[in-house]
Amino acid sequence: MQESKTKPIRILVAKLGLDGHDRGALVLCRAFRDAGMEVIYSGLFATPEQVAKMAIDEDVDVVAMSLLNGAHLTLFPKVARLIKEYGGEKIVLVGGGIIPEKDKPLLEKEGITGNFGPGTSLQTIIDHINKELKRR
Known about the structure:
- By secondary structure, this protein is of the alpha/beta class.
- It has 5 helices and 5 strands.
- It is 41% helix and 20% strand.
- The chain is globular, with a radius of gyration of 14 Å.
C-alpha cells in the first residue's frame, strides 16, 4: 500500500524595505520549518518587486511579510498588487511587525491577513496560515 504524501507548504518570509531588524523574521523561519513548511527567506532590504517576483518564481503558497519601520501601509499593499499582476492571486499574504490596530482593517482590504504584532505566539501564526490555506 502506497502512502499518500501531501505537498509541504512553501512559504516566503520577506523582510521588506529599509528595516534591518530581522531577529523576529529569523525566528519565524525556524518555526515554519519546524512545522514542516519549506521556507525561503528574502534576506534584508527586499523591495516589493523582488518579493513579488520571488513569490512567483519559487511557486510559494504563502508570503509572510515583516516590517518594523512603519511603512506597512505602503509596502505590503504594493507587494499584494504586484503578486496579483504576476498571476499569484491564490498566494496567501500574511503581515507582521509594528502595525497599529487602526491600520489592520486597511491591510485586510488589500488582502493581507493576520497582521500580527510583537508577542503573538508562533503557534497562532502557524494556525492562521493553515486556516487561510484551507479556506482558499
